[in-house]
Amino acid sequence: MPLRTMHLDPEMTVGQLQKTHSISSVGQLLPYGNIKHTGLPEGIEELEQTPVEFNAGKLDYADEQKIYTTQPMCFDEQGRLVGAPDSERTECFISGYLKRKIASTPNIGARIPRPSSTMYRISESLGKGLGMFATKDIPAGELILAERPLMIVPITATTTRDGDIPKHLTLHQMQQVLLQDTEVVYKVLIDRLEPDRKKAFYELANSHLHNGSGPILGRIRTNGFGFNEMRDLAPGMCGGYSIVCDELSRLNHSCSPNTFHRWDMPSFTVQLRAARHIKKDEEITTTYIDLTTIAANRQKQLAPYQIVCNCTSCANHSVSDPRRLACINWEKQNAGYVFGHFDPESKPALGPLMAAYKTYVAEGLEATSGFGQVLEMLMGSCAKHGDVPNTKLFAKKFGVWKLSQNGSAGNSKELERLLMALAKWMSIMKTQQKLKLR
């Protein structure tokens, strides 16, 4: 995910901007593309950042204080530092709030899950640079990779500069100050990396070469993932974080991705699972954007990555767009849907549900929550109609979907058993009803 980009008049001054926006929000107003006049404005000195080695066992920071820290670290029941769980560690520039949240996670530093075998290779992808490809057939729901990040940093540009930024500077100049300051702040973080992980970071792609982003920030903007679990949620705070991995950064975008990635706090890893069956030699893809919108909107969202998508859905948008709009309407109609809430009184029609299922599959949207809703509703509806084979079919599909989304099928097996019992009972009742009518 890129650091957020917004559009304002670049010639607006800091003084004018303060009338409608807080200066802290300017860290989200980052330019992309080819920008003229990059670098620090005349009269603004380069930020000096003194490396500070914070005590790894210290947790009593202010919520909003940003600190350099190596994670994950393990603590005992008395809150005393035990140490790092293994040699794969992540360098972080995070808030005191988030450090405490990480430290208080049950089983933090859990063993990194490993797939049964290596399922991918990193190699050239035509027109995209490096990509990830399957070396064998990969079933839906299968764990492909769990990777501990190289680094975690705020999703907004940051500075430790004392005092206000001069009010005569334009928005464009202020953006350049923040870009340059962020580069200095994150250079300290990069220098904390082990040599092999530092090398891996600098080998990542950088699609922000001409907008004032330095080589560090440019790579972070190009390759970072964002997850709701890694946010500052203390009162007065709402900032997200950019999570940069090594091999997972090689995943290219598709508007019909064949994987789903999630954050697992206990193992401190980003986990990648197959959202549908992936064939040997097929490229393994993810999404950088919101998928439930039409092709023209998706292309706009991809602009900061310097990407023009030519996937099947974008190339055939006259066919794809109506199907995407149908998925959007489905999710609007079911906006209040609660997973796991089985209503024995409702009996949704199978026809519309099957139509929705086929539309999601045709668009390759198996990684979306809407697809999970369709599967759960289908297995319930099939059970209520006494359709035993399809109840079992969609229950298994829902279990695989849940596994890819959550890393666990949860209670889907128990739900499958209950629905199978219901389906068999309904089937018997139907048979008895037919016999009575003879």
From TrEMBL:
SUPFAM superfamilies: SET domain. Signal peptide: none annotated. Residues 115-289 form the SET domain. InterPro entries: SET_dom (IPR001214), SET_dom_sf (IPR046341), SET_domain_protein (IPR053185). PROSITE patterns: SET (PS50280). Pfam families: SET. SMART domains: SET (SM00317). PANTHER family: SET DOMAIN-CONTAINING PROTEIN 5 (PTHR47332:SF4). This is SET domain-containing protein. It comes from Cristinia sonorae. The lineage of its organism: Eukaryota, Fungi, Dikarya, Basidiomycota, Agaricomycotina.
